[in-house]
Fold this protein.
Amino acid sequence: MVTLTIDGREISVPKGTLIIRAAEQLGVYVPRFCDHPLLDPLGACRQCLVEIEGQLKPLTACTTPVGDGMVVKTQATSDIAREGQDGVLEMLLINHPLDCPMCDKGGECPLQDQALAYGPGGSRYIDPKRRFTKPVPISPLVKLDRERCVLCARCTRFASEISGDPFIELFERGALEQVAIFEDEPYQSEFSGNVIQICPVGALTSSTFRFRARPFDMTTTPSTCNRCASGCSIAVQERRGQISRVLARLDAGANDEWICDKGRFGYAYSQKPERITEPMVRKDDAFVAVSWAEALTTIAEHAGGSAAVLASGQLLDEDAYALSRFARTVLGTNDVDAFARPTSDEETDMLAALPRTATAGYGDIDRADVVVVAGTDLQQDAPIVFLRVRKNQRRRGLRVIEIGPRRSALSRSGAEWIACAPGGEAGLLLALVSALEERAQTGLDPMTRAAAGDAAANDVVASAGADLERVRALAATLTEAGDHAVLLAGEQLATVPGAQSLAWNAMVATGGRFGWVPRKAGARGAVWAGLHPDLLPAGRRVADSGDRAATSEIWGAEVPATPGRDAAAILQGARSTGTLYLFGADPVADHPDADRARRALDDAPFVVAVDMLMTESVRRAHVILPALPAYERSGTLTGWDGVARPVRAAMPPAGIAQTDLEVLQGLALALERPFPATPEAVRREMLAFARAAEPARAVGAPRPAAAARGDVLAIRVTKLLDDGAMMTGAEQLRAAARGPVIEVSPGLARSRDIGDGTVVRVASASGEVRARARVNPGLAEGVVAVPAGIDWIDARGLFGGASVVGVSIDPSGDPLVLGVEG
């Protein structure tokens, strides 16, 4: 600790603390523009000048560390500091336009505030101010007013230090220095909106917010983002019944002070005029608006026979729990699923263990010595988890190792890559647990040890095509790191038989932490709630009589004893299902086979859809009930780390839409079945299921599968900015998405005479796609990566429900039609 005096008050702070931070601890505010606690010190603006006894001139508080016995005087007690700050403000205002009444930053502008609080009362400058062409669109989302810029370099430091997308830079020198982008290269980043929020003046403004509102004219509601599983703290700002903007809130336990562009700009779907705001019933092949009473009565009249429920992975925790309870106690079925893709017994074992296991979180990443990433592209699946990993890479040298056929953006900040063939993750992980066994690692469970020693294991390992020496080195690294090792596994890992359980059990054996990183915001909450055909709330199993009895005691109703059908089986048997309920689910868009999903919904005797938007699936329903987005309802949302964070309603409900819980209560009443009558009653039941987290235990380890075979193999890659229904209306956000391309490994590209920008045709036995190619050295050889969730590419037809498929690839020769390309 170092003891110093600031404005006559003594304080002790850790060695290395900057003066500006020490002053903050005393409640002394030193004016600043370039300083930001999450960015490296720079001292660009010189606004934070302070006087230090023994120094010949003022020093910047944002770059000067404290010293023992140091005596600091800020503008509150020093004429030198005050005059220096006056001079800096006068210089900044020489060319700064005095357009505060029309500037988007007006009312929340540090320059405006500090000019009033600390600046001179007038200006001595009488010459014309400098002018630039404005605004300059540096991306579809961000516009630049160069004459307002104070050259604080916050934006350029964020781009290079935080997001790793250095497309925005300071150009020229002296009086000509200005923020700019490279010619013909827009500022493309999944995090570009953060530079708008941290800009201390109105130089960087939002295309979606410009000239629409003022800070003092909006109501701000703290909440949690529901666009992915990161669990970001946000502030939703509303004006006259419309969301004006969404900002990041400071939360050191999750998103620091950053959010991705999808969370910041993707709210337009919630206030589109075509939103479903009242119940509708199909009559003579047309939907007719009806009252809630008529809609519920219609459902009750058709509710005889069996029922099944398909749910979205976006539900809030309370809605997910209530839906799970509704299916079991009101409908009497375990045919309920929140996963559009097929699940396996192996994954079910892992999902059952999640709710009762202490899994990895943000703090574990901060403490880790090594992070292994498998089955996920963090930047696209969980952007804020990506930023947390990258921050630790950069600031303290965290070692990051990716395993799989494709490396991600983490490679730009030094992540290592152990490549394997598509579908070879199981073989690679099998080699890992074999290496752990060779190191006399006694923590391996018997099933995993048996799998590693199986006679067929060598073939599985060989098919992976991984560098076994590097895999053995990884085993040594994990053993040495112990509980300072983290493995982050995405949902893609579950598509490779044996991979997920091997990853889980390897971390159990070494004492490390396993983190499940799903794409959907409510996926972890859905697992806890039991929105799964084999699971009940809190990881209890349908097939376990003790778990059923304990659940029945809480619910006061019997739980069906037969495990249910997953989403694929429900759609397959839709014709014999009396009533099919869709709670935010869109099978036509999400099911691996869109045509089968269409046929299933057309064949189903009666379909009830609870949704906000008229998707293709909803159009096939018989009754439509309006639902609410997270901006219009309150509850909790459990992130990837298992932490439930509060969601608060920022807007009144649109029309007569209701929360999912209210819909379920109305349905239960119409069906004359008992059900909790209030949100408080639901939460009391949820608390009855809660129990303390246990240490991780090994899960069942099935026989791992060999990697796929073929001269050219295609894999699917997910995109943050896809064509999902919740991107509806966010036109600037869609325009800012990186152009979807088919990635091709270098050797394959050379053999087919394919270069960057070449239009290629990729064909499989079940379909084909065409798009521009990009040669990606971060792909295993002989691999092409096709983006999923992009309508005009339609990768589902290419894969036919598989995760890896053999394909042919050749230059197409036909140019893509402009506009169709996206």
Residues 79-95 form the longest helix (17 residues). The radius of gyration is 29 Å.
